Amino acid sequence: MKKNDLMGKQITVVGGGISGVALACLAKDLGARVFLSEMKDSLRVDITEKLKYQGLEWETGGHSSRAWDADLILLSSGISPDSEAVNNAISRNIQIQGELDFVYPYLNGRLIGITGSNGKTTTTSLTSYLLKKAGFKVAEAGNIGMPLSNIVKEDWEYTVMELSSFQLYWSSCFSVDSAIITNLAPDHIDWHGSYKNYIESKSRLINNVKENGWVIVQKRDFPNINFTGKGKLALMSWDDPSDNSEYHPDAEIFIDKKNIWLRDMDGIKGLVEDAISIPLIGDHNRENIAMALSCLDLLRVSIQDLMFQDDIFKGFVPPPHRCQLVRVLNGVRYIDDSKGTNVAATIAALSSIEGNKIIILGGKGKGEDYSPLARQVGDSAVAAVIIGEERQLIANALSKEGFSDYYITDTMENAVNIASSLAKEGTNILLSPACTSWDIYENYKKRGEHFQSIVKNLSKEKNDSEK
Questions:
Q1: Which of 13, 111, 199, 401 pairs as cysteine with 176 (C-beta 3.0–4.6 A)?
Q2: Which helix (H) or strand (E) holds 29?
Q3: Structural domain range at position 290
């Protein structure tokens, strides 16, 4: 590890989740005296065991006076600027630092940061996969599951990071070699206070990119972003390569139903041709692939030999619960998009999957307007089944848009059975709730796993066609 000035300092880590515990362990390894403080009444058993093993002290059920006996308050991922911890630290003039700025000096290799409202996990996974396939030593971390604090002890050639708006909110010095914003749509407004604040948080990634580094964003999102950074700009769109962008970027990425092109100072080149099999459902995943490939090409990563291999994506395992094909039964495709936890994600899934669709909606809301969702359901679906706390609000939005082919029920089992009874051969049954899972399930993963379990146990018939 690199030298630091933390030796002997007293640090309080706020938050006892995975990232908080990883931060506490890293701070201890760097020579600080560390105390962890958690608002919830208890921590997971595996976390308390790790804290004991590391010889760290902690508290639960709120922040005691001991939490403020600190030189630095270190915030784990997700701690709100309106939290008690932040307000107390400010009132006591204690320095506050977020996860990204704290870990940044100890990260290794060229850094690729990926954020966005939707698609960031898939794009992170694709970028990491391609680098590994090209023979590089790659760390994949951040909001994707592995805390950044856990990867600092090893030398990497590339570090690919999925970054949330919560993490980025607290960043000021964190900087990467290449930054991607997959897309922008209203999300986490309850945390940020407004869509404008949410975009500003995301924009911290691209505005702090290293000089001569690359910034990749969607052309349709760019007008909403206040781009003030030093990086070179690449815009992506579903346009013809002959189109000249009014924004005069340093590079342009073009997509159609068959191909992906990149235009930079070297001219136009194809990155994906029709012959390549892409094992991901939906046009929005073509965008994710285009961003991953373009990012590496713009960084001059030596992956050109991979580009036109027919099996370039052989071995890639897509992240689960993101337009994941679960089963084909009696000619009906069952698709798990449980990660579709906001209106924009569900609209993307509905608009990019071809064929007739029956959609399962509902869960715990985020205060979003369901009118755009209702319009997309009317345009793209033959029926909707609605569950969860938001079921009546979503039903009202559908009715207001003149869509009446919806069914309200109370369980996932009933929702799947209703959808199956309505489906004809060639139909897609899509779980893409446009809501969080927290009214019924611990998280979107548990919801998706339950959906998959129900689907896999549906009765087979004579003309069953398995995945």
A1: 111
A2: helix 18-29
A3: 107-306
Residues 173 and 290 in one domain: yes
Count of structural domains within the chain: 3
pLDDT in tens, 250-296: 999 998 877 888 888 888 887 766 545 566 777 888 899 899 999 99
Q: Count Cα atoms within 13 angstroms, Cβ side, for 23.
A: 28
- Residue that finishes a domain, picked among 306, 338, 365: 306
First to last CA, the chain: 47
Burial 54-82 (b: 16+ CB within 10 A, else e): eebebbeeebeeebbebebbbbbbbbebe
Q: Which of 70, 101, 132 is the last residue of a domain?
A: 101
Q: Hey, CA dihedral for 109, 113, 119, 121, is it positive or negative?
A: positive
What number of residues does the chain have? 467
Which residue type occupies 95? Answer: Q
366 with 299, same domain: the answer is no
Q: What is the enclosing helix (H) or strand (E) of 414?
A: helix 412-422
- Angle 371-380/391-400 helices, nearest 10 degrees? 70
Q: Domain for residue 467, yes or no?
A: no
**What residue has token string 């990071």?**
161
Bridge-partner residues for 215, per DSSP? Answer: 179, 233
Partners of residue 342 on adjacent β-strands: none
286 and 150 part of one domain: yes
The strands making up 357-361's β-sheet, listed across from edge to edge, are 324-329, 332-336, 428-431, 357-361, 383-386, 406-408
- DSSP code, position 244: P
Sequence-separated (6 or more) residues with CB below 8 Å from residue 343:
185, 186, 368, 369, 370, 372, 373, 434
Residue 425: helix, strand or coil by DSSP? coil
- Taking the C-alpha atoms of residue 224 and residue 199, their distance in angstroms, rounded to an integer, is 8
The residue among 61, 53, 65 whose CA lies nearest residue 12 is: 65
Reduced to 3 states, what is the DSSP secondary structure of residue 151? helix
- pLDDT, tens digit, 9 for 90 and up, residues 318-348: 888 988 999 999 999 999 999 999 999 999 8
User: Strands 232-237 and 251-255, how do they pair?
Assistant: parallel
